[in-house]
């Protein structure tokens, strides 16, 4: 007869996996708080001194203005760190074992697809369908921050599950951006980007890790990707995936671990807050949250995300079997928490619309993310209290 643990979809992580998740949790929690403060500052600024806020966003710094530096540059650092985390999980972490990876990966894919379907259903027959991917992304910094505040009595593997899900979610959304939201392509620049990335990968393979060699290649790949018409965050993910995780006998840390340690504070405490500051300043006067775009985004985040995450996890569990670890009731609050879109969702808003619909979509992202955070926090707090007795 099956025991209750047979209905738990994720195995316990190894001790070193748990230590890594705890370290990431501390960094992302701080970053989430800073990004929230930056978003609040942007909203107040845009609605009290809108002209000066727009002047800041349009401030020209070299070849790009501040808004584009934040979206194309700062977020490239954010996605580079996501790529490093994913590479680690694939090589030495939880994703290296297909049976363990199946459930969080399927949950991530379901959490991307179902919100998009919800948005399309709400906006069917309207000219607003270009924003279908807005509610598909999960913001790892905010989700981990909420989990850290309310989940003290919850098992450590719940955090590991969220980290794995969010990293895979980021990768899928970056692929969507590359395929569906790229501007007119310039083949010459894209060839340069591919050549720079290939050279970077070869140098990693040959154990040549001098920053004097690698940094110019990364910068060239980033700029060539942007100039080629593909969003520059794609270059960040690819660099992360190409960075070597294996260590030499004389090294305590691999190149990927060293790079992640160096860039994670920059990503969490500078890149994401800067993007939040330049992207969330939406004038709220006369803004409607009952437009099809806004309703589609809110419904996608609050309803589509948890349904997709739970549905994907359930389907993977049915197909691939279930190991001991998390109870399904633990995953309900986590699935609700995945509706926190914020960073990447705001990016897709800018890529989808260049008129009043962008402001509607951004406001809906903020409202939907807040609702998801509150619902997830209530569910996880209740579950934590039950576990603590």
Automatic annotation (TrEMBL):
Subcellular location: Cell inner membrane; Cell membrane
Topology relative to the membrane: Multi-pass membrane protein
Transmembrane residue ranges: 30-48, 106-125, 132-154, 160-180, 187-203, 223-242, 262-282, 294-319, 331-353, 359-380
Keywords assigned by UniProt, alphabetized: Antiport, Cell membrane, Ion transport, Membrane, Sodium, Sodium transport, Transmembrane, Transmembrane helix, Transport
Catalytic activity: Na(+)(in) + 2 H(+)(out) = Na(+)(out) + 2 H(+)(in)
Superkingdom to which the source organism belongs: Bacteria
Family: Belongs to the NhaA Na(+)/H(+) (TC 2.A.33) antiporter family.
Protein name: Na(+)/H(+) antiporter NhaA
Organism, scientific name: Nocardioides mangrovicus
Upper classification of the organism: Bacteria, Bacillati, Actinomycetota, Actinomycetes, Propionibacteriales
